[in-house]
Amino acid sequence: MHISEVKNLHPCFGRVNNKGRMHLPVSPVCNIFCKFCDRRIGDCDDERPGVTGALVKPKDAPERVAEALKLCPEIAVVGIAGPGDTLATDHAFEAFRAIGERFPNLIHCMSTNGLLLPEKIRDVIDAGVRTLTVTVNAVDPIVLSRLNDGIVYRGAFLTGEEAGLILIRNQLEGIRLASDAGIIVKINTVLVPEINGDHIGAVARAVAKRGASIYNIIPLIPQNKLSNLPAPSCDEIDRARLDAENHIPVFRHCQHCRADAVGLLGGKDVGEQIYHTRVRDTFSHG
User: Fold this and answer.
1) Is 175 helix (H, G, I), strand (E, B) or coil?
2) Facing residues of 77 across strands?
3) How far apart are CA 105 and CA 11, in angstroms?
4) Which residue has the higher pLDDT, 136 or 15?
5) Does a structural domain hold residue 286?
6) What is the residue range of 29's domain?
7) Which of 7, 81, 113, 155 is deepest in the core (most CB within 10 A)?
8) pTM above threshold 0.90
């Protein structure tokens, strides 16, 4: 499938609204500690990223996809966006391999924080991933330290500028490697005006230089350690988008989907019917 066709079929990369996507919540573990993050497993009501009603085992992924296609045949993309990081375990790769054997025409999409992307790029390619979203919130370690409490990297918990330097280095190198491999790369940036509001242009310029082709601004949802900060205003979001557009095309119809969203953007969502087993669990960092 040509890159242009992949973009046209993916509702989060192109401009179509008649194609659906399915998020498979198979990745339970995360390896970075974002100050704005409040991930939940077992939550049926909260409509935002990082939330799922239940986890799915990789071996069960094809059957869940089959159920989803019966309810929403418009689905063209199977994505894994959490609720943890997709590269922190091998669960996403196992799920994609199983899905690819049964549904070879579905586009494989993955979201990651990028910490492990350079060392796992071959796994990403072998899993048939065609579209990749990397969340990059800063390319200055000082700015990033105000957004992130630390990372778990090669068995060590690292904080401050040291953690920021490693995360930024790996993100940018991973984006370059993915783009060079023919994967379409989208960038998500969580906009926190008081922290990275004046930094969006620098992020957009850096990721575009490495081959990213689409950029998405996600407004801060005030929670966790940044619950005292306000959500960005419409003017602040527009300014950030304009800053980014100087360097890279900007995606403007993000729905802030849950990790178990299934269906059409802005339309029917059948996730509740697919993930009908709601199991309470705890979210972990690895």
Assistant:
1) helix
2) 21, 107
3) 16
4) 136
5) no
6) 3-281
7) 81
8) no
Residue 117 structure tokens: 């992307």
Q: The tokens of 142 are what?
A: 């000082």
The domain that holds 108 is classified in CATH as 3.20.20.70
- The first and second tokens of residue 259, run together, are 């990790």
The identity of residue 51, as a single letter, is: V
Neighbours of 85 (CB within 10 A): 24
DSSP class of residue 59 equals: G
Whether 219 maps to a domain, the answer reads yes
Q: Does 64 fall in a domain?
A: yes
The domain total for the chain is 1
Judged on CB neighbours under 10 Å (0-12, 13-18, 19+), 117 is buried
Residue 285 binned pLDDT confidence (cut-offs 50, 70, 90): very low
Pairing of strands 107-112, 129-135: parallel
Q: Of 269, 244, 200, which is closest to residue 11 (Cα–Cα)?
A: 269
Greater confidence (162 vs 7) lies with: 162
Q: Is residue 173 part of a domain?
A: yes
Integer CA distances (angstroms), 244 to 169, 198, 213, 214, in order: 20, 11, 12, 10
The two structure tokens encoding residue 206: 């850096």
Distance CA 222, CA 246 (A): 28
